[in-house]
Design brief:
Layout lengths: L2 E4 L4 H27 L4 H14 L2 H17 L7 E9 L7 E10 L2 E8 L4 E4 L5 E7 L5 E7 L1 H18 L6 E7 L5 E4 L7 E3 L3 H7 L9 H15 L1
Pfam families: NERD
Keywords: Membrane, Transmembrane, Transmembrane helix
InterPro entries: NERD
């Protein structure tokens, strides 16, 4: 089993709970006032209130679920692999001052930066486009589309930020990026073969273990130490 000692509680899950809490606190008096003013519609108001509470931060909830499912898969890696989640890498070019990486795996055959997506739909796109398209089917069978950020472009920026940081800490190494669609209904169709592996649902562990680096990975111990420092700084 992979080393999971640096896995911390999912930040997105905490944000979901916080969002629901505030929706409940703010919405309760409004719902009560409306129910008093419109007693004949009390059940409609109550239902709408519950929808708001449980639907709060739905996107973050989906993201948290995807990361947790992916971690469950990665835990099956051998014990010479070390897992990190939600690593904040300093980046002065962003408003927050850092770039968050979903998952990082450090193993004897390299360092893997994994961008997790939890779309429950077919996704199409082109590697060079800023956005891809998610094709969804509504509860009543209606079909619609939605734009999603190009995860390959996201991942390449993340890899660059981490590589720059490690170089500054004298811990340079080759970083292998992987985009992983974790949802069981995910289907991805791109206009051409991607320059970064894009995997669906399964095969992530197998991909990592089968990866053959062009040269022996360098500074793996230093990389782990720097990632530990970043995790400690964020705690």
């Amino acid at each position: 089993m992979a080393d999971t000692q640096y896995i911390t509680k999912n930040r997105l899950s905490q944000e979901v709970n916080q969002a629901r809490k505030w929706v409940a606190i703010i919405g309760a008096p409004i719902a009560a006032t409306l129910m008093f003013a419109l007693p004949q519609l009390w059940w409609v108001i109550a239902f709408a209130y519950l929808i708001l509470v449980f639907g709060a931060a739905a996107t973050k909830k989906s993201g948290a679920s995807g990361e947790l499912k992916t971690l469950k898969q990665l835990e099956k890696l051998p014990d010479d692999y070390v897992l990190f989640n939600q690593v904040d890498v300093p980046n002065p070019k962003t408003k927050r001052g850092y770039t968050e990486l979903d998952l990082i795996v450090v193993g004897p055959n390299g360092v893997f930066v994994i961008e997790v997506k939890n779309n429950n739909s077919k996704v199409t796109g082109d590697e060079q486009a800023p956005n891809w398209t998610a094709h969804k089917v509504g509860q009543k069978g209606g079909r619609y589309t939605a734009d999603v950020r190009n995860p390959i472009k996201q991942l390449k920026k993340q890899v660059h930020v981490l590589a720059t940081y490690l170089k500054g800490k004298k811990a340079s190494t080759w970083l292998e990026g992987v985009v992983f669609f974790s949802h069981r209904k995910a289907r991805v169709k791109l206009s051409s073969p991607p320059s970064i592996p894009v995997l669906e649902r399964k095969g992530l562990v197998e991909h990592i273990q089968a990866y053959q680096p062009k040269r022996p990975p360098a500074n793996l111990d230093k990389v782990i130490q720097q990632l530990i420092v970043l995790k400690q700084a964020a705690s």
